């Protein structure tokens, strides 16, 4: 059993979440519970981070999907390189776009799910908190670093929050809010911090 508690004035300990409370409620009054105590990072910052992620996720509308930006970039760069060998760049780019659109049409039957877990991992990796791994097929992939309490202290988590705010601002929220500071205020209002 794992349990998170918050120390209150006077020395009392209170369950941090409803799940923690449910675990405590199963014990009889006067029961003695024993465990190894360790101090975790600030749970308010953890909740604030997830409020930021949720705000970005709510505003995010997946687009494209059938053709990845990397695929589009590769084909267009190839068309530009061909144009250097004597083709008209605008004609080659038009052919490249026609090819990509036809390919997208063939892939259109693929259902794409808007996944919070995939989104969260993408934000963490884009914020610079990742490790690089090589897959068996030779593909190199960025894998998001774990943000669990055990793997990140308050200082590093604060850096993650700031970098994630920038990522979510640049990719999603810049068209819905005026400034990053306005986004941070919205997150604080959602949490009742303001």
TrEMBL record:
Any matching Pfam family: DUF1367
Name under which the protein is recorded: DUF1367 family protein
């Amino acid at each position: 059993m794992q349990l998170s508690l918050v120390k209150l004035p006077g020395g009392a300990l209170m369950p941090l979440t409803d799940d923690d409370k449910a675990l405590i409620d199963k014990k009889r009054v006067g029961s003695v519970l024993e465990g190894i105590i360790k101090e975790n990072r600030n749970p308010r910052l953890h909740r604030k981070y997830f409020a930021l992620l949720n705000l970005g996720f709510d505003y995010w509308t997946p687009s494209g999907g059938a053709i990845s930006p990397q695929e589009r970039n590769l084909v267009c760069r190839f068309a530009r390189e061909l144009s250097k060998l004597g083709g008209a760049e605008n004609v080659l780019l038009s052919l490249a776009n026609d090819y990509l659109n036809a390919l997208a049409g063939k892939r259109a039957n693929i259902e794409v799910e808007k996944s919070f877990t995939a989104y969260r991992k993408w934000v963490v990796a884009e914020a610079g908190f990742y490790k690089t791994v090589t897959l068996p097929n030779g593909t190199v992939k960025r894998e998001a670093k774990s943000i669990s309490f055990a793997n990140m202290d308050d200082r590093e988590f604060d850096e993650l929050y700031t970098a994630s705010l920038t990522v979510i601002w640049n990719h999603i929220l810049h068209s819905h809010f005026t400034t990053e500071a306005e986004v941070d205020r919205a997150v604080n209002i959602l949490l009742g911090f303001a």
